[in-house]
Predict the 3D structure of the following.
Amino acid sequence: MRDFALEVHFSRWEFNARHHMTASDMESMTLGELTQMAGPSARENLDALWLGYTETWGAPDLREAIAATYDGLSARDILCFAGAEEGIYAAMRVMLSPGDHAIVSVPNYQAAETVPLGLCAVTGVPLLENDNWRLDLDAVRAAIRPNTKLISVNLPNNPTGALMPQEDFAALVALCREHDLYLFSDEVYRLLERDEAGRLPQAAEAYEKGVSLNVMSKAYGLPGLRIGWIASRDSALLQKLERYKHYLSICNSAPSERLAVMALSVSDRILARNRALIAENLEKMDTFFAEYPDLFDWRHPDGGCVAYPRYNGRDGVERFCHDLVEQAGVLLLPASVYRSELMETPAGRFRVGFGRRGIEAGLAAMKDFIARRHNDIAPA
């Protein structure tokens, strides 16, 4: 597998740049803040925790709490992982063999295509840049082969923040059912939609071969817990995944499981806080981009806490992002990080995040940089 471009970029800059303006997670909290929110007994329960191995499937009460976030699922339909990345890796390794074929939406989180590419034939289908990043269902339909095993999507999408219209999602499920395909759905930004009316069903709810991936990292803002999961009504698939996890993390961290249970018990409060922060930060983003209508093409994403604007400066987005972090300490992710091996991807774009507090300092640094470099970067 080729290097994970996003993580390589982050390994250089994530903890060195002064202004992390491309974070993909929501504002986190301290251990004390979480235990206080969870109630008087939360810290006592944590202090009394036995630090031994936990169940490979995940603690029973954690799986019950996760299952409660789905309609019609129970704890037996949940398998926990050490973050979402382990879930992606295990699922692709278990579900795909050399003679299979997979279909992946593009642009995407790199692991969604890189891991399958190491296993079998893969076809990329585009999110249509000029149609609000709508998945090209005609291209999906045309890509299906006799040996196609699964279709992989990410909703809301990273990096674009795009959702599918409800009717498109229903059509995608029907297509998978018609051809007996798995639908692997990365749903880590679910619950952060701008409009709740656009919130999609989870794949594991909507389809008997739906496989839903989620994690405590993004919408809940708790990436340090490293707790993710896969939900599916396919018990045989979950059993195979559990056996594969024996070769990976084996089990999750016991303190992390306790903290995840606490967080899910107060999820309404956490999500309300996070949605309010997104709304506040989007107003700041709107104000910033409105000052540079020729330099940037900006629109609100449908969901999540990242967006994918276009940069129109004459220096190009790669040079802009490079100089911005080197000279002004502002970290963005340029389009090259989202390069696909499957098909040509939109150029000129960059990922910006707006899920954390304090983004006004990063926006101010960007304004100062643009003012200093105006003659060099202004569109022709």
Observations:
- The chain has a mean pLDDT of 96.
- DSSP finds 15 helices and 15 strands in the chain.
- The first helix runs from residue 5 to 13.
